[in-house]
Amino acid sequence: MAEMKIYNTLTREKAVFTPLEGNKVRMYVCGMTVYDYCHLGHGRVLVAFDVITRYLRARGYEVTYVRNITDIDDKIIRRAAENGEPIEALTDRMIDAMHEDEARLNVLRPDVEPRATGHIADIIAMVETLVEKGYAYPADNGDVYYRVRRFAEYGKLSNRNPDDMRSGARIEVEEAKEDPLDFVLWKAAKPGEASWPSPWGEGRPGWHIECSAMSTCCLGKSFDIHGGGPDLVFPHHENEIAQSEAATGQHYANVWMHAGALRVNNEKMSKSLGNFFTLREVFEQYDAETVRYLMVSSHYRSPINYAPDSLDDAHRSLVRFYTALEGVTPEQGPVEAQYAERFHAAMDDDFNTPEALATMFDLVRVLNAAKREGAPEAPALAFELKRLGGILGLLDSNPAEFLQGGQPLALSADEIEAYIERRNQARKDKDFAESDRIRDLLADKGITLKDSREGTTWVRA
Ligand SMILES: [Zn+2]
């Protein structure tokens, strides 16, 4: 079989992937802190590592996919108190919601889903080892800290030098720490907070140590792939390396993979900008396969822009696929090997999904031609198209239903008003191409504009 290349954040280059043990791939991905519903950015990470897992399996690797749940944390404690509910009631509810959202995005569940609160003994044992080895120290305030300067390779993942970090003004000064760079492994409990007994008194784990302990428990001291969202490289993953390699004395994860950012209308998604969406809000407006397609159509390391136009494009692409599949009963049969070969060549090159989809579009053209000509190979071509789509977690719907559903892609009144405002501005600027484009875009969605002296009004068809 051809070689497969993966980009490694640690070495900052694409390299041939070789599992540590035969054809077994052990992969750990940082999961959710379950105090609220999953947002679009979470959805992107979920889909990225789902495609990676599906493709590794399609290639014959035996994958063990572990994704943790952080179910104890400051935000969780605060939210549960605000809601007046026990922590477990909140976290159980959010975990159920996460599983529902995942299922709608056609994301397969990980093989193991450890919860931090289920691994407190392992976490304490790892902190004890770090204290014994001199990499950590209990402070006067009851916290236990990691001694960053003791770990010579600190900064190797995020390419930072501790000396430069020290001069940075953003490091909070905590008097109990020996050095401002040190980070917390174990937090002393405040009165009334959820806590567990430990050699350093009642407390709870810091976030970083949870992942070191859970990944080691589930996958061993060294494993193949560690993944997560773009914002986790520093400090979370840098700290995980420092903890795990100091505690075990062994190389931690071989390949570090990070998904790219998700932006909304070309801005960073944030509550303060008013462009923050949970997955369930998104699913009220767009069907989930369209959202998944948007994510798969970008390379997993590239930024994705979530905007009505890009979702329209995603939906139109799916319509082309399902139109080709409609009216043919897929049946396995001989098909030119070039489609699968090109698909695999693209995916073997650091999971290049845009290239893989381009190959699938070539297959759509051939399938459409076969259907027009009534050629006997149409069922085999349809089978191949669905098979390749399945590796990306796409094209699972019934074509007729997908197309008949018409996928409302309904715009909210606010969004329509925002388009009208953009169109008014374009007209003022005499940019009539842009104003026509917006009018047509709205017409495609069944929104008709009426211009009068009083302004522009709209009706939904
Ligand atoms: Zn983590």
Automatic annotation (TrEMBL):
<dbReference type="Pfam" id="PF01406">
    <property type="entry name" value="tRNA-synt_1e"/>
</dbReference>
<feature type="binding site">
    <location>
        <position position="271"/>
    </location>
    <ligand>
        <name>ATP</name>
    </ligand>
</feature>
<dbReference type="GO" id="GO:0005829">
    <property type="term" value="C:cytosol"/>
</dbReference>
<feature type="binding site">
    <location>
        <position position="236"/>
    </location>
    <ligand>
        <name>Zn(2+)</name>
    </ligand>
</feature>
<feature type="short sequence motif" description="'HIGH' region">
    <location>
        <begin position="32"/>
        <end position="42"/>
    </location>
</feature>
<dbReference type="InterPro" id="IPR015273">
    <property type="entry name" value="Cys-tRNA-synt_Ia_DALR"/>
</dbReference>
<dbReference type="InterPro" id="IPR014729">
    <property type="entry name" value="Rossmann-like_a/b/a_fold"/>
</dbReference>
<comment type="subunit">
    <text>Monomer.</text>
</comment>
<feature type="binding site">
    <location>
        <position position="211"/>
    </location>
    <ligand>
        <name>Zn(2+)</name>
    </ligand>
</feature>
<dbReference type="GO" id="GO:0004817">
    <property type="term" value="F:cysteine-tRNA ligase activity"/>
</dbReference>
<feature type="short sequence motif" description="'KMSKS' region">
    <location>
        <begin position="268"/>
        <end position="272"/>
    </location>
</feature>
<feature type="binding site">
    <location>
        <position position="240"/>
    </location>
    <ligand>
        <name>Zn(2+)</name>
    </ligand>
</feature>
<keyword id="KW-0648">Protein biosynthesis</keyword>
<keyword id="KW-0862">Zinc</keyword>
<comment type="similarity">
    <text>Belongs to the class-I aminoacyl-tRNA synthetase family.</text>
</comment>
<keyword id="KW-0030">Aminoacyl-tRNA synthetase</keyword>
<dbReference type="InterPro" id="IPR015803">
    <property type="entry name" value="Cys-tRNA-ligase"/>
</dbReference>
<dbReference type="InterPro" id="IPR009080">
    <property type="entry name" value="tRNAsynth_Ia_anticodon-bd"/>
</dbReference>
<dbReference type="InterPro" id="IPR056411">
    <property type="entry name" value="CysS_C"/>
</dbReference>
<dbReference type="InterPro" id="IPR024909">
    <property type="entry name" value="Cys-tRNA/MSH_ligase"/>
</dbReference>
<keyword id="KW-0963">Cytoplasm</keyword>
<keyword id="KW-0547">Nucleotide-binding</keyword>
<protein>
    <recommendedName>
        <fullName>Cysteine--tRNA ligase</fullName>
        <ecNumber>6.1.1.16</ecNumber>
    </recommendedName>
</protein>
<dbReference type="GO" id="GO:0005524">
    <property type="term" value="F:ATP binding"/>
</dbReference>
<keyword id="KW-0067">ATP-binding</keyword>
<keyword id="KW-0436">Ligase</keyword>
<dbReference type="GO" id="GO:0008270">
    <property type="term" value="F:zinc ion binding"/>
</dbReference>
<feature type="domain" description="Cysteinyl-tRNA synthetase class Ia DALR">
    <location>
        <begin position="342"/>
        <end position="403"/>
    </location>
</feature>
<dbReference type="InterPro" id="IPR032678">
    <property type="entry name" value="tRNA-synt_1_cat_dom"/>
</dbReference>
<dbReference type="Pfam" id="PF09190">
    <property type="entry name" value="DALR_2"/>
</dbReference>
<feature type="binding site">
    <location>
        <position position="30"/>
    </location>
    <ligand>
        <name>Zn(2+)</name>
    </ligand>
</feature>
<dbReference type="Pfam" id="PF23493">
    <property type="entry name" value="CysS_C"/>
</dbReference>
<keyword id="KW-0479">Metal-binding</keyword>
<dbReference type="GO" id="GO:0006423">
    <property type="term" value="P:cysteinyl-tRNA aminoacylation"/>
</dbReference>
